Write the structure tokens for this entry.
Amino acid sequence: MRVAVTGAGGRLGRALVGALAEAPFTGLAGPIAWTRPDYDLDDVEAPSRLILRDRPEVVVHSAAWTDVDGATRDSALADRRNTAATRALAAACAGSGVDLIYVSTNEVFDGRRTDGRGYRPDDPTGPINAYGRSKLGGEAAARESFDRGKATTAIVRTAWLYGPPGDDFPTKIIAAALRARAAGEPLKVVGDEYGSPTSTADVAEAVTELIGSGAVGGTVHYVNLGAVSRADWAREVLRLAGVGVEIEEVPAATWARPSTPPRWGVLEASPLPSGEPMRPWTEALADYAPILRRAASATGVGTGTGGPV
Ligand SMILES: NC(=O)c1ccc[n+]([C@@H]2O[C@H](COP(=O)([O-])OP(=O)(O)OC[C@H]3O[C@@H](n4cnc5c(N)ncnc54)[C@H](OP(=O)(O)O)[C@@H]3O)[C@@H](O)[C@H]2O)c1
């Protein structure tokens, strides 16, 4: 099966390419990696051109303008890159009978939920920032095209992604913790924002299983199981990395930033096509521990297990 991945050089994109390369159904050639400059969100002609050139049967659309604060500063650009570019891709896919998997986000929900449950795929959406609105626009564009086409589309929402090559929340919090410890200060971490930390490798495996099942369709939430605050996520990261530092929980409002993330950004994890559940977030993060320990030692500030975490 010929499967193309947009944004193939991004954090999730490279995990998708890796998982699809291992899947027997992609054959010896493996997946088709669409990256810039060939695939550019600003070029509405690119999808038709690439579909004609590479003849995929499924496209996984992982590319997006993921700068959440940038999207608030320039919402028109966010709409062009996350909504209009998805519309162009979806139309080209639907017109050629190519299935589309659109990667979306927990930020399509308002985060005002207070019953402690994660958002389900059919819960009402209501983004509170420009990035979430632009991604929700992409969802609508994908569904609309396929209402009229001969292929299908699936929306895969995920959240709080981390994974190689790093430069993610876990590796940034390790660097911040080491700086705070060197300065003899507590590490300030937001305590009132909740989410579902999710391994890119696990999402990539889930998407690969979805494609292999031949049941592409509907809306699913591929996140690792569980809900946790940023501060508790940081505690677990630092424990696994062996970095001891005092954590001071602060409200999200402590840092003024252009965009507001959903306070309760937790998604209820959908089962995999096999019926198996996604793994708990703590289990998935434990697999990332070697990279976390490397991130802790790479800074040169030193690590240790002493002190409160
Ligand atoms: N990160 C999260 O926590 C999170 C949570 C929920 C959903 N998502 C969704 O997951 C998907 C992957 O995100 P990620 O975390 O892997 O982010 P990422 O590392 O920023 O990857 C985004 C990808 O999009 C590409 N891209 C950006 N602007 C582009 C443009 N103008 N033309 C073509 N390609 C462009 C990037 O290409 P370059 O490498 O060339 O820059 C990169 O490969 C996105 O759809 C995002 O909305 C992410």
About this structure: The first strand starts at residue 3 and ends at 6. The radius of gyration is 20 Å.
